[in-house]
Amino acid sequence: MRDEKEARCEVCGTGLGPAGRGRPARYCSRSCQARAYRARKRPPLPEPEPQEPEDREGRRREIAGAVWRIAAGRGLHEASMREIAAEAGVSLRSVQYHFGSKHQLLVGALKLLHADNERRARERVDHDPDDPRALLNAILEECLPLDEERRFGLRVLSAYYSRSLTDPALAAVFLSAEHPLEDLVAWIIGQAQESGACRPGLDARHEADLLVSGAVGLGGDMLHGRRGAVEVTAALGYHLDRIFKPRAEG
Predict the structure, then answer these.
(1) How much is the pLDDT for 53?
(2) Nearest CA-CA partner of 142 in 168, 106, 116, 177
C-alpha cells in the first residue's frame, strides 16, 4: 500500500483527513477559505529596493532630517512613524526598513545630529593655543543660536531634552554619563593656568561647569527671545574676563 502525505489546510495547517471523490479540499473551513480569498485580493507589500551603502546612508539621513524638522517645528511628541515618513517623502515601510523601531529611529537621528554639530563646530572654531580665552569664547558660542543653522540644531536638542524627561530609554542615550564639553573647557583652563594666563585660585573643573551650563542656559533664553545676542555674548565675555588675565599681564 502506498503512503500518502496527509493533506493540510493551506491557511491554518489543520489536517484535512482522507480525500474523497472530486476535487481535493484545500481548506478546513469556510473561515479559512474566506481568509485565503482576502489575502489574494490584498496586494503584497513591495520590498525596498536593494541599495548601495552610500544610498542607504543617504536615505537614513533624509529620514533623520525629517525627525529634526518635526522636532524643531512641532515637538518630538508629533514625530510618529507615519508623520516622519510623510515629512521625508518615503513610505512607512522604508522608515521601518532603515531604522526598525521608533526608538531606534529617534536615537539614530540624535546621533547623526550630534555628529553633524561636532563637525560644523570644528569647522567654525579655530584652534589658537596662544589665545585660550578666544578659543573658549568660540567653543561656548557653539551653545548659542547665533545663526539659523545653530538655532535649528538647538531647537531639535531642546525637543529631545523635553522628551527625555518622560522617556527613560531615550534619556539613557541623550544624557550621557560623560561630559566631553566640560572636560574640554576644564582642560583649556588648566593649560592656561600652567602658562600663567589665568587669575590665581581658580578650580578649573568648577569654572568649566559654570561656563558650559551658563552658555546652555543663555542659549535657551535666546531661543525664547528673552535675551539678544549682544547681551548674551557680553555676559559670556564678562565671565571669561574673571578667569583670564588681560593679555598684557599673561
Answers:
(1) 59
(2) 116
